[in-house]
Amino acid sequence: MKNNVLIIGAGKIGSIRAKVAKKLSSKSNLYIFDTDLDKAKVLAQEVNGKIVYSLNEGLKNKNIQIVIVSVINKNTKDVCISALRNKKHVLCEKPMGTGFKEALQIYKAVEKFKVKFKCGFNHRYHPAIQEAYKLCSQKKIGKILYVKGSYGHGGRKGYDKEWRAKKSLSGGGELLDQGSHLLDLCHWFFKFEKIKDVYCIAKTMFWNMEVDDNAFVLIETKSGKVAQIHATWTQWKNLFRFEIYGTKGAIEINGLGKSYGRETLKLFIRKNPGQPPQIIEKSFTGRDKSWELEWLDFINNINSNITYKRLMSNHKESLEVMRTITKLYSQ
Question: Whose C-alpha in 51, 144, 256, 274 is 20 to 30 A from the C-alpha of 71?
Fold first, then answer.
């Protein structure tokens, strides 16, 4: 089915989304809007798209069915709600606004206007994460007890001068940035159980900025599961690590490809108490297909006209991620 797409924001992530849409929705027309006209022109040329010269022009265009929102956090809420009000399906790059209040407004708009909404948590679609979720669903490691996660990079020259470093534009620091990916995974593996308690140390430890460059987090669910995560902009060698521990074994995921290293999964099966576990290891090579898989999930959900509950990272799930982040920051 042909779904014409408006990409709002022609930066790095908007460009990735646009190129994926061009590849996988080749019959669709692509429209590009950015307040920086030069950026819009470059991306439009790369994807054979049409430039939109005002946001209102794009949102009012009845030939456009889908909007990709890839703007700074401060503008996310207003742009998403405007798109939803104009009955567009929305793929919004994470996070879902600057905090829970804004996420709740987006959630209510989705419910009101009855269109599809997805938050861009592409990490769920990485092959090691998908494999781990399948193994957990099959009870290969028994009942999940706790998870641990670490995610970080070291920034770049001038990182403390970018928009992410300004609280008025970002709403928060590394907890909201890479931390939101870890928290989305924790919620997902915990089947979105209600949260009982949270504890957080969010600090600015190195960069000269208004927001946290490190976040150390503990979360406990109502049933007693625990998540321990660390998100950091002082990880001088890029790192992604996610571990799930159960009553019968554990799963360890390392890497995301490219600068984060080869993506691998280790499954530890605990045969006998006190004895070394059986270890099954798997590596995932090749290019990152997570963005493509996420787009297909979104498009298939729209075209099949099924309930949002079948769509990963929908407005309900992503609202819970933002609820947790706001609770953590309140400490």
Answer: 256
Domain locations in the chain as residue ranges: 5-118, 127-287
Name 226's bridge partners: 146, 220
Check: CATH 3.40.50.10490 for 5-118?
Answer: no
- Residue with the larger pLDDT of the pair 272 and 195: 195
Q: What DSSP designation does 44 have?
A: H
pLDDT in the model for residue 273: 86
CATH fold of 127-287 = Dihydrodipicolinate Reductase; domain 2 (3.30.360)
Over residues 79-95, mean pLDDT: 98
Widest CA span in the chain: 66
The string of DSSP codes covering 200-249 is EEEE--SSSSSS-SEEEEEEEETTS-EEEEEEES--SS-EEEEEEEESSE
Residue 121 CB contacts under 8 Å (≥ 6 apart), including other chains: 94, 180, 181, 184, 294, 312, 313, 318
What is the H or E stretch that residue 89 is in? strand 89-93
Whether the Cβ atoms of residue 192 and residue 266 lie closer than 8 Å to each other:
no
Give the residue-averaged pLDDT of 119-133: 98
Q: Are 91 and 189 in contact (CB under 8 A)?
A: no
